[in-house]
Every structure is written in C-alpha cells, then in structure tokens.
Amino acid sequence: SCLKANLKKNRWLVLSPGIGTLLITLLLWQLFNLFENKQMAKSIQTESKTLADILEIEIKSQLLAINRMAKRIESGEEKSQEFWMKDAKNYIKDANYYKAIIFLNEKNKIQWIEPDNNRKIQQLIDLEIKNLPTVKQAFIAPPIEIDSEALLLLIAPVSEGEGDTGSILAIIEFKKLFDQYLNAENISKNFK
Which of 19, 32, 60, 130 would you label with 177, given CA atoms 20 to 30 Å apart? Predict the structure, then answer.
C-alpha cells in the first residue's frame, strides 16, 4: 500500500514538467497568434487605405476626362452626334466599368446615349436625372442604385456662349471599378 502511494506521487512528479511545458507552449502559441492577428489587421488597414486612394484617383481622373470631353464639345469644332457617340464608345472601351455615357440637353433630356442599345438604362436614368441641378463645373453626384447596382454619376456641364446647352453624364458601375483593383492576384502578393 505504501508502494502504491509512492507510485502515485512519482507519477504526478513525472507529469508535472510535461503539463508545465504544455501550458507554456499554449501560452506562447496564443501570444504569437495575437501578434500575428495584429499584424494582419494592420496590413488589411493599410491595403484598405491604399485601395480607397486608388479608387479616388481613378474616379477623379475619369471626371477630368469627361470634363475634357465637355470642353471639346463646347469648342464647336465637331458638332455631329455620331462623332461624340464614337468618342464616348472609345471611353467605354478603354475603361470597362462605364455603364453608359449620355449627353443631356439643357432640360436634362437625353439627346444621345452610348451604348445606344441600352434602352433599359436610358429609362432608369430618365427617372434619376429629373432633379439634377444646373451646374457650372464638373462634379461627382451621390451614388445611386438601379437594379441592385451601385452607380456613380460623373457630370460635366457643356455650355456655348451665354446659354447652357446641357451636360455629359458618365455612369460608372462601382462594382466593376472596385473589382478591377481588388482581385486575388493583387491581394495575394501583399499578404505573402
């Protein structure tokens, strides 16, 4: 019976260093995970800020491009609707996130739309643009949602002489713009 008591004591003595080592290992593992999570959160925050900056720059550059188009229309060198629709088509081809580019007259009625077969967007935009203000400089309108799509509206006024002749309305699909910069390849290279 005394032998059994000594074996029980010795067994706990043998197990104590093992349990202690296990507890220290678990503690160190938890500390390492905590550090790793903080580093990951910091990386995500940095990447989010970078993406937001890139998107802002891209949207502002497209606003400048649409404003340049409006200024070229104002110059009056080329007056044909076909020319401007072809120019708009080139913008859309160069930046796949454009949903449409529209020329509105001074009463915010659609004069032409590119792509011209986009009757659905034409009908939906007709509802949204009724209350657009008359503007003297290009601006980014608050986003709208049509058919569960978030759309950005870039608006540049077109005027000839004293009177307003209308504006250029560029519609950007935010998801396509966002997806262009947020893809698996860009993400994986930053988190290796």
Answer: 130
Assessment of whether the complete model's pTM goes beyond 0.85: no
Dump pLDDT digits (tens) for 66-95.
999 998 888 877 778 888 889 999 999 998
The helix or strand, by DSSP H or E, that contains position 160, with its residue range, turns out to be: strand 149-160
Q: How far apart are CA 73 and CA 82, in angstroms?
A: 12
Query: Going along 1-122, which residue ranges are E strands?
Result: 98-104, 110-114
Helix then strand count (H, E) for the chain reads: 5, 5
Cβ atoms of 63 and 126 within 8 Å: the answer is no
Question: What is the distance of C-alpha 123 from the center of its chain?
Answer: 25
Contact assessment for residue 177 and residue 154, using Cβ atoms and an 8 Å cutoff = no
